[in-house]
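[SOLVED] Predicted holo structure with S-adenosylmethionine

Edit: marking solved, answer below. Original request kept for reference. I posted the sequence and ligand SMILES and asked for the 3D complex as structure tokens.
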Amino acid sequence: MTPLQENERYKFYLGDCMSVLKQMDDRSVNCIITSPPYWGMRSYDNGSDVHEIGNENRFEQYVSALTEIFDEARRVLKDDGSFWLNLGDKYVDKALLGMPWRVAISLIDSGWIMRNDVIWHQLKGTQSAKDRLRDSYEHVFHFVKSKKYYYDADAIRIKPSKLPVIDAEATTSSTGVSGKKYRRLIAESTELTEQEKANATKALDEVLAEIRSGLVNDFRMTIRGAQRTWHSDDVKISGRAKELVNRGYYIMKIYAKGHLPSDVWNIVTEDTWRTDKHCAVYPEELLRIPILATCPEGGIVLDPFNGTGTTVSASLKLGRKGVGIDLSPEYIKTSKDRIANNGTLL
Ligand SMILES: C[S@@+](CC[C@H](N)C(=O)[O-])C[C@H]1O[C@@H](n2cnc3c(N)ncnc32)[C@H](O)[C@@H]1O
């Protein structure tokens, strides 16, 4: 079956995720983002006798159950799709299990390609143990199905903040270049004609205006006869040399496209009052980068462990479609109410 009909923007399926996934068509979703129950952390009261992930007696069983589910999810994922998995760790008899990595390595062994291990730094952390440090992060692993995959880097770039503007003369680029020196070089030039000087000054004013507006981040200006050139002087080889001969100046601009976020994300956890019943709700902000970078607009994001519908809610807000699966009728109802309330959990 197709997870969503043409005219649908979202859908919640009640049931065991393995059984529901098995019914879904091959390559029918663009992106999967999920946070399964952590092993042995808590028992979700789902009122059904379906196998609930996290309740296995041995952690090896948990790892293999998740690996099987995500193998099935890989079939449902488009070939250029991404899978983001949030997992937390657990101590048993004082020993940290390394559970996120146990699952991650099992997924790598079963054919997933890992692209990032994101550290979700939760900025706070509570615990009572006095003989070790406070836990303050969880992992968000990014997996892909094939080496070539959809990734819109420009959608998540961090733009440099606009540079302070005092007046045109005091404007400086990100590396502190102001127009002052170039203005003087133009004025004192014995190589440029009066017309070329006027043109060069106008071009300098224009690039400074672009710096003020945030479009350009940095620039360098070369004026004929005023500085040593670092490119070939041969006009046949270098376009810059040609511009110097023809116009008397050359401006190199660095556009303010911005840089990519790092793999450490500082995002506070959901407020406790929104931690519905027993379900560990993740914040919608955690899903912003995964959705914007790895699901095209109008594409489908799937969460096989839907909980309160955070993934579907965030996807809709960012112009994508959402599909959630959960075996708890209560959480399915909570999710539907949430979407009806514009993403707010009641
Ligand atoms: C950690 S919660 C997900 C929370 C979610 N990310 C949110 O923000 O609300 C895990 C969910 O997986 C569901 N679950 C556990 N085993 C399942 C299974 N076999 N099939 C489908 N859902 C399952 C639980 O009912 C629970 O709602």
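OP edit: The radius of gyration is 27 Å. Thanks to everyone who chimed in.
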